[in-house]
Design a protein that fits this description.
Blueprint lengths: L3 E5 L9 E8 L11 E3 L7 E3 L6 E3 L7 E3 L13 E3 L5 E7 L4 H6 L12 H5 L6 H15 L5 E6 L4 E7 L3 E6 L5 E4 L7 E2 L1 H4 L6 E3 L3 H7 L20 E2 H5 L6 H4 L1 H11 L23 E2 L7 H7 L17 H4 L10 E9 L9 E7 L8 E4 L7 H4 L10 H14 L1 H28 L6 H33 L11
Antiparallel strand pairs: 1-2, 1-12, 2-17, 3-6, 4-5, 7-8, 8-9, 9-10, 10-11, 11-14, 12-16, 13-15, 17-18, 18-19
Helix pairs in contact: 12-14, 13-14
């Protein structure tokens, strides 16, 4: 199971933006090439047909324009994954999550329901707020069902919501606290859900309408009787994780350690994370779903945690610790990262320039984050045209090549990677500020497309230079190296 997610409320970020980011990782043994595109209304399907299932749907509403990160090759469907629409609403889908036999027996998955392949295309073009996204996806799941368990993020300039499917037709959703952040890693993650709010005013929680009856009828509430304090419909802190989630041995090597590391990085002093007296350990099932960070979260913080390989711990696969520890837990920055996208909605910029999508492709340990304006009708060819065969003139393939070369020579190449990431980051922020402040005449989309072209040119220049530096170091370290002076 792939993917890692972080969501941040507007009061938790350095500039008051809402931020939502997720790695899309391919399954083991597969490396899925991706592209960054815009889907204009005339290109949106009016009759949608899935590829991996028999699911189909007529889409009669008028769609909004939106960005997407689909598979470069359409053989398995669209897989739009992450995007922002012209109403400045963002969606990221999906975080594959776990459940348990009780839930899946009570509400079995639906073979020909909808799944990750479909969701962005069916939802993002038709919503004008994060809440609308939750409601639309919830209605689709209730009517058609799903064949897999998924977590989905929705975001507008004011709110970020996290949605989790529960069995084939049920779901829950919770608003990310404005002053907090949420981290997710392939498990059902919402810990406590205010059912009274979700079934009532829906200020900070939402759910399928029959959820209380579903829980009761199938004995899913694991709360001890003395702690219940009233009917389910009045529960302000229902233990959703215990009812709907998993706590398998595989969770403790694949999932919980990633959450532990991200929380540890963003709240290093709030709790004790290491040693025999730790408040939380990598394999704990009770890791918080949300915390208030110790300092405001930046774009660079998000890139760092979504690239992490347990730096500063005995579990770092590139570290000097015992070999057993290096491979004990699944890294966040893994060879199977397809891309990471951070959608940033900035309240201090006019609405036409508000939405920015930061993108990096390939293994996150070695790639660089590049921002692009979302209010456009096309994206730069460097990211939009990804072919089947490796081609260093395409951002995905250049990034994949850098990672494969640098991983094998980590210590030799680490300085080149650091310089590359710092250069792209600094130049990206400078170009964004320049384009944010620039005056323009005529079409704003045309102006922003030119800004995106400049940013893509910068990314290509720096990526080419990094690829050259890494290739040189890897070539020098080849096992057949020999000079006359070696004799």
């Amino acid at each position: 199971m792939p993917c890692t997610t972080i969501l941040a409320g507007k009061g938790a970020t350095y500039d008051g933006s809402t931020m939502m980011a997720r790695n899309e990782d391919s399954q083991s043994g597969v490396f899925t090439s991706k592209k960054f595109i815009v889907v204009n209304p005339e290109d949106q399907p009016r009759h949608y047909q899935a590829v991996l299932s028999k699911f189909s749907l007529d889409l009669k509403e008028e769609p909004l324009r939106y960005t997407a990160m689909p598979n470069a090759l359409p053989d398995e469907g669209i897989w739009g994954e992450a995007g922002i629409n012209e109403a400045n609403v963002a969606m990221t889908e999906t975080e594959t999550i776990t459940s348990n036999y009780r839930v899946l027996g009570a509400d079995p998955l639906v073979k020909d329901g909808l799944g990750e392949e479909d969701m962005l295309t069916l939802v993002l073009p038709y919503i004008r707020s994060a809440r609308e996204g939750v409601a639309r996806l919830g209605a689709l799941l209730e009517k058609y069902g799903t064949y897999e368990m998924n977590g989905i993020g929705f975001q507008d300039v004011d709110e970020v919501w996290w949605f989790e499917s529960i069995g084939g037709h049920h779901w829950i959703a919770k608003k990310v606290p404005d002053d907090g952040y949420v981290v997710m890693s392939n498990q059902q993650g919402i810990d406590l859900l205010d059912l009274s709010d979700a079934l009532g005013a829906q200020k900070e929680a939402m759910c399928s309408a029959d959820l209380a009856d579903f829980i009761r009828d199938h004995h899913l509430d694991l709360t001890m009787d003395e702690d219940k304090g009233g009917p389910l419909e009045a529960a302000a802190a229902f233990d959703a994780r215990a009812a709907f989630g998993s706590r398998d041995d595989s969770d403790h090597t694949y999932n919980t350690p990633r959450v532990w590391y991200m929380l540890r990085y963003l709240n290093p002093h709030t709790f004790t994370w290491d040693g025999p007296d730790a408040d939380f350990r990598p394999e704990d099932d009770n890791l918080p779903w949300s915390l208030q960070p110790e300092r405001k979260i930046t774009v660079e913080d998000i890139k760092y945690v979504l690239s992490a390989h347990y730096q500063g711990t005995p579990f770092d696969c590139y570290g000097n610790g015992p070999e057993a520890g290096k491979h004990q837990y699944r890294p966040i920055g893994i060879n199977r990262n397809n891309f990471v996208a951070l959608t940033q909605l900035r309240p201090y910029v006019d609405a036409e320039r508000r939405a920015v999508e930061w993108i990096a492709e390939g293994s996150n340990v070695f790639n660089a984050f590049v921002p692009f304006y979302a209010n456009v009708t096309k994206t730069p060819a460097y990211l939009a045209e990804t072919g089947k065969l490796p081609d260093s003139h395409q951002f995905y393939w250049a990034s994949r090549l850098i990672g494969a070369l640098a991983d094998a020579h980590f210590n030799l190449c680490s300085l080149a990677i650091e310089r590359y990431q710092n250069a792209v980051g600094a130049r990206s922020h400078a170009l964004l500020e320049e384009c944010d402040r620039a005056r323009y005449r005529g079409s704003v989309t045309k102006f922003l497309e030119k800004c995106n072209d400049r940013i893509a040119d910068m990314a290509r220049e720096e990526t080419d230079a990094c690829l050259g530096a890494v290739l040189y170091q890897a070539s020098c370290a080849m096992k057949n190296a020999f000079a006359r002076s070696d004799a």
